[in-house]
Amino acid sequence: MSIKTLSPHYISIPLTSPLTGVICSSYEVRIYIWDGSKTAIPAEPSYTMTKINASGSSRSDRINIARIASDFIGFECIPQQGTVLVDGNNQVWIKYECYYNDSPTVPALQEVSLALKGYGYFLEGENPQLPSNKILLTGDEFKVSRDGRFVLPIMVDEPPVPIRTLTINNFVRSTGVNYTLTATANFPYTEIFVSARPVGSSSWTPVEHSGSSYIVPSGIASGLFEVRAGAFDPVTSAIIYSAVYNITAIRIYKVEPYSSGYATRIFYNLNINATTVDLQLYNNGSWQSWPYDANSPRYFSWTPTGNQKIRMMVNGNYSNEVSLTIPLAATINIP
């Protein structure tokens, strides 16, 4: 999309958040303007505006961003020798982001456009676009001075890009409802946002983040849930989503012997929010529970010897099962 800064160019901001489906009480629009590489988005916005939805309306607002971009274009003709094809210097990139009050760290709307000093004609109305022939002058024939200089501005198509991918490698609980994301992408981005939902639900909830920590709502983090990551690709001006990543509630990854193998330390990863974790032992055809706190490792002294089977249980979710022989002669590592 392109913006002719001497004609009105409106963006539409729905007062119902696309992320949560809730009518906002306020929203903030951040506008970034820069030149050079399309992916070199500034760290700080050039312009910020906040709108209060005092009436609780569910309609959409319209904001004219053409006049804002126009202030950043100082039109200048740079002389060249001979007939040459050169990069233009009288245009800027403009990106806007919209944040709603109920998820202030997750952008709900984003877009990157090219803005240039130009205008559309009356019948084109608002948001006029570039002509199909990509020539940024009116007409097909031009009369020029033999001894003068003439600039023919044209729009060049962007090169094709590979299929964009975003992959969640891990989403690990650090403490409480705080999680750390590890992800890879084959495109440039400034930040990754995350949504979460309980297993079986179809509704995604935005996950707020502070630095590298993602804060999952407690009602979701206490049970089995799944997450999806998204990132804005400035080259294609599109949000790229990852595949759905399923959280493993709890997993035993190591059992260590101590006290001559008649006691064990059971190490586990707890990836949901809980204060109590049960160690369960399989005995006489049924599982017996030994509840304790949620700190790993779990220490356990064995009275019976011989072949045993254990698992962990948290908030109704079970870990992998591990078979061992007491006294335990060596550490068991579970891949």
* Shape assignment: elongated
- For the record, the count of structural domains works out to 3
* DSSP helical segment count: 2
Give the H and E element order. EEEEEHEEEEEEEHEEEEEEEEEEEE
CATH level 1 name of the largest domain: Mainly Beta
SS content category: mainly beta
Attribute tags:
3 domains, elongated, Immunoglobulin-like, 335 residues, single chain, five-stranded mixed sheet, mainly beta, eight-stranded antiparallel sheet
Descriptive notes:
With 335 residues, the chain is mainly β. It has three domains: 2-124, Immunoglobulin-like (Sandwich), CATH 2.60.40; 166-246, Immunoglobulin-like, CATH 2.60.40.10; 250-333, Immunoglobulins (Immunoglobulin-like). It has two helices and 24 strands. It has helices at residues 66-70, 218-221; strands at 2-4, 10-14, 26-34, 47-52, 60-64, 91-100, 109-116, 166-175, 178-185, 192-198, 205-210, 213-215, 225-233, 238-241, 245-246, 250-258, 263-270, 276-283, 286-293, 298-301, 306-314, 317-318, 322-326, 332-333. Strands 8, 9, 10, 11, 12, 13, 14 and 15 form an eight-stranded antiparallel beta sheet that branches. Strands 1-7-6-3-4 form a five-stranded mixed beta sheet. A hairpin with an 8-residue loop joins strand 6 (91-100) and strand 7 (109-116). It is elongated. The two termini are 49 Å apart.
